[in-house]
Sequence to fold (208 residues):
Amino acid sequence: MVQVKICGLMNREAILTAVDAGTDLIGFVFARSKRRITKEEAADLAKYIPPNVKKVGVFVNEEMEVIQEIAREAGLDYVQLHGDESPDFCREIGLPVIKAFHVASPEDLDKVARYDCDYYLLDSPAGKYRGGNGEKFDWTIVKERDFLNKKILLAGGLHADNVAAAIDEVNPAGVDVSSGVETDGVKDLDKIREFILAAKKGETNGII
Fold:
């Protein structure tokens, strides 16, 4: 079953909408971003997330102790690392890890083999911030790659109108969206619902 992650949520209404629509993971951004929240805000918002929906904290080149402290206080289930974190760092952090990789060429996918993580998020090349740029990369780069049963999350430029096609072409374990469910830089409740519905429909075609 394809997993859906809605990232960069900052308020109760967006979280409740995503949960009600059937999201599997909710992402809180703790890195420099317009979507950044504090660990206190995340801990408060976590009260509205049921146990079956997993909480993910997004970090970029953060110190291990800081990540671990925020994970404890916010009750994170996963940490998503969007920086230059090494395979050793990912192993030693002591938490389930989603490691992000920016994909501009087939060679960028060679890095995945060096990491032993729970999920591997493939995103478009970094812009001003690492992730959440709303740009799609060339999915055909991923299509022919054998990741040896590693769980791939697809991100970058996804929205309700193209997520089913993305699932069809790439066959990922899950999809991740942030700017694709926003209007004027703010989470749009209707777009959240539409994206989750479209992604979940994509798995009914014998794809996942």
Q: What stands out?
A: The chain has one domain: 3-205. The mean pLDDT is 91. Residues 114 and 193 are 36 Å apart (CA to CA). The helical segments are 12-21, 39-45, 64-74, 87-92, 140-143, 163-170, 189-202.
